[in-house]
Amino acid sequence: MPKTLEGQITMEKTPSYFVTREAPARIYAMSRSTKLIVVVRDPVTRAISDYTQTLSKKPDIPTFESLTFKNRTTGLIDTSWSAIQIGIYAKHLDNWLQYFPMNQILFVSGERLISDPAGELGRVQDFLGLKRIITDKHFYFNQTKGFPCLKKAEGSSKPHCLGKTKGRTHPNIDPEVVQRLRDFYRPFNMKFYQMTGHNFGWD
Ligand SMILES: Nc1ncnc2c1ncn2[C@@H]1O[C@H](COP(=O)(O)OS(=O)(=O)O)[C@@H](OP(=O)(O)O)[C@H]1O
Predict the structure, then answer these.
(1) How far apart are alpha carbons 61 and 117 in whole angstroms?
(2) Is 8 among the domain residues?
(3) pLDDT tens digits for 100-117?
(4) Of 1, 49, 60, 179, whose CB has the highest number of CB atoms within 10 Å?
């Protein structure tokens, strides 16, 4: 990490920090005052999104339904499959709380990032102690993309949407499998709501 001068914020991101066992200790050793931001979404949708991304690179993988279960007849879920494992947010958060207090961690709602991007970014700016520079006026809803986009990209006068790999169409998943996953995640979601003091509404 580069040295951070007075008045600067240094940022670093990767999707896998939150679920990497060694990450909290390493970040703590580097700087215990680091602020942590995690975007979380409904773990069932997250698993399907994760699968969709893998499928786009390896079209021959088994179906989502068959990867979900260790044993489809008994309904035993394969929690070792990373697409399922990553969504057990309460378990990952436990690991971070061994090093960082809750008030140093902000959980951004992936759903609200789509329905109210400025509102969610308002929370991020407050958390970082920044003035609310990014507001509603910076976004518009792009009907073709089906997502909010920036009216102007940084350093440009043109609108900017996220790329083709963000907001892909998900495959249809057997509703029984979706329900089984909802039941599986419910207790972990409840624990996560309790730990964060925030109901993300994934029921
Ligand atoms: N504004 C906007 N435009 C497009 N997409 C948006 C936006 N806001 C949030 N999202 C959601 O971001 C999801 C992809 O982000 P990821 O976290 O998977 O990205 S990463 O691969 O981990 O970097 C992606 O998930 P999928 O819909 O499953 O592709 C989107 O739902």
Answers:
(1) 34
(2) no
(3) 999 999 999 999 999 999
(4) 49
Q: How far is the CA of 163 from the centre of ligand 1 (A)?
A: 9
Q: How confident is the model at residue 154 (pLDDT cuts 50, 70, 90)?
A: confident
Contact residues of ligand 1, CB 6 A cut-off: 15, 49, 52, 113-114, 147-148, 162, 166-168
Amino acid 155 reads G
| Nearest residue (CA) to ligand 1, atom 19 | 166
Spatial CA neighbour of 123 closest among 109, 111, 144: 109
160 is in an annotated binding site: no
Q: Is the pLDDT of residue 1 over 90?
A: no
Any binding-site annotation on 31?
no
Q: Is the pLDDT of residue 186 over 90?
A: yes
Nearest residue to 141 (alpha-carbon basis) of 133, 132, 151: 151
Ligand 1 atom index nearest CA of 148: 1
Q: Report d(CA 78, CA 70) in Å as an integer.
A: 5
Residue 155, marked binder: no
Distance (Å) from CA 147 to ligand 1 centroid: 9
* Domain CATH code at residue 173: 3.40.50.300
Domain that holds residue 87: 17-196
User: For residue 96, how far is its CA from the centre of ligand 1 (angstroms)?
Assistant: 24
The H-or-E segment that residue 158 falls in is none
